[in-house]
Amino acid sequence: MIEERSSRLHRSDVGSSASRALFRHDTLDRNTDSFRLIQVLPDCSDEGLIQLSLWQDSISRATYQCLSYRWGDAARHQAVLINGKKFYVGENLFGFLQEVHNNDLGVNCGTALWVDSLCINQSSMQERGHQVQNMGQIYSKAQQVLIWLGGRHTQAPALCAWVRSQSRDGCPASLSGHWEQVRRDPYWCRAWIVQEVLLAKHVSVIFPGASIEYGLLGPAIAGSTDLSRLDEDSAAQLWSFWNDHWSKPRDRAQAHSTVHWLRHERDRNRFWELIHLQKTSKCADKRDRIYSLLGLVCDDLDFPVDYDEDAVDLFWRAGEHFNAWEAPELVDILGIALLNSTTSHDDTKRMTGESMDPRELIESLSTRPDLRLRISVRRATSTASSFCQGMEKVRCESRDCRRAPPLECTQYNILLCTNARSNGPTEHGCIHALATPLDEPPREGFWIRLEAHHGTKTARAELPATALQILDTDTNVWNSIETWKSLGKVLDKKDLDRADRVKLLIPAKYAIWIWYGVHLDSLDQVEVKQYRDLPSAQYILPVDRVCIRESL
Question: Residue 198 phi/psi, 5° resolution?
Fold first, then answer.
């Protein structure tokens, strides 16, 4: 069928380059698993342009390979023909198409390929969202993923021969400069690379006139890495992650179960390991630091991709979905990924530090005055014992809350703590609340007194009983706890700290307060927070799990 399509297209190749219409994508059916594929045709046009055939197909039925590459400078492009019409591609992609056309890569002209910049209508935000939502399927269903590092690696045949030799003597001096070019290639800093590589059945790295399996190249990269500078070595980090989660399975069935585990693990810890790796990765659209991971951590529709949504809205949505509000450190990591505006765009350098500027986040609340965040209740303590001892104030007994001031109480209050940390106080604040009955002794109604602490200062608010909510696991809907009796039953759970089923719905400005110690009326006093060492999600993970930066 592909041969018939290409022959018809070749016969229809008439007209000069100047008179050709520009190619426009047809509408894609977004209600199915439709996507587009391309094929490089064996003959150039009369004007000498590379010709491509493009058609729609089904992800579940098609046989194809995927290309993983850098788009490069958008201002530098070359013309090709797609279905007989002119289309402009970046120089890096053009180099790949030339290699395929010349049959120098072992990829035949008849091979069906998926290439994002060609197969997705980039001018349609709705289509981009649909295709990115399906990206996990696209890469996991492909026969092979081809990593194209570009045409500048002219010594690739000799380098590949050295890597295959598995010599322990190190890289030959004659190739050392070229080897550094490969290890430091800007490709390894791409945001999309983690999903593209981890979901692939087979990965090959291709150069002009040479190719090598990623399973051979990765160990060579890791073996020549200075571990003290691992944070600056994206290629080594990727290999460590790939080796940990993909190369260990003994057979193909076990390998597919690994992908299944990556995508369907019940908790959200996997997301934080990945975003910790990705938070300063290179991408033209910083929202892709989130979207590029969804194929690894979500079911297809679990977290919708929406390119009509700005980065700030995505921050609030992703934070809620992946439980960032449980720890300020996770908020910092998410903020660096989506809101940090000081990241260098020089792909030849890795940043040695990051600036987390909360101004953009704080300013976003001016257009979202009713924004509420759900924060898990970790501990619940009756104040009766403190009151019986003659005290009219109660202090949270968690060692993580030692800096929090005591709260005035009566014997009928219930102290709620939302602090998720397990290794003592930090520079961030924490939120406590007192559930207070409307009548004493308690009958039915109650209200909540919120106390948000940061340093020695406290911000207070009164919340209705409906701010305390419990998750209905059957319907996945949050329901309000409206009576004192039901409150007691809900909080009397030994697994309260781990279940994440009881949450406090608070105004977002109080979360801003504990994260940064800033009130909305003090915006001019906000200081940019400089990190010598980027915040780690490690403490929030189970004891047997480590973040990628330490894993190699």
Answer: -70, -30
pLDDT confidence bin for 143, thresholds 50/70/90? very high
Look at residue 381 and give its three-state secondary structure.
strand
Cβ proximity of 69 and 187 under 8 Å: yes
3-state helix, strand, coil in the chain (%, to 5): 40, 20, 40
Nearest to 68 by CA among 191, 231, 208: 191
pLDDT for the residue 237: 64
Distance of CA 470 to the CA centre of its chain: 28
User: Closest Cα to residue 548, out of 235, 329, 298?
Assistant: 235
Determine the Cα–Cα distance for residues 127 and 116; give it in Å rounded to an integer: 12
| Beta carbons of 384 and 425 less than 8 angstroms apart | no
- Other Cβ atoms within 10 Å of 251 Cβ, number: 8
Question: pLDDT above 70 covers what percent of the chain?
Answer: 74
Residue 119 · residue 38 · CB < 8 Å: yes
Whether the CA torsion 309, 310, 314, 316 is positive or negative: it is: negative
Each residue's pLDDT tens digit, 207-216:
888 889 988 8
Residue 552 pLDDT > 60? no
Question: For the chain, what is the largest distance between any 2 Cα atoms, rounded to a whole number of angstroms?
Answer: 96
Q: Report the 10 Å Cβ neighbour count for 456.
A: 8
Task: Indicate whether 188 pLDDT > 60.
Answer: yes
What are the beta bridge partners of residue 90?
77
Q: What are all long-range contacts of 280-284, with beta carbons under 8 Å and residues at least 24 apart?
A: 280/336, 280/337, 280/343, 280/350, 280/351, 280/354, 280/534, 281/189, 281/190, 281/191, 281/193, 281/234, 282/186, 282/189, 282/190, 282/191, 282/345, 282/347, 283/190, 283/191, 283/192, 284/71
Q: CA-CA distance, 57 to 307, in Å (whole number)?
A: 24
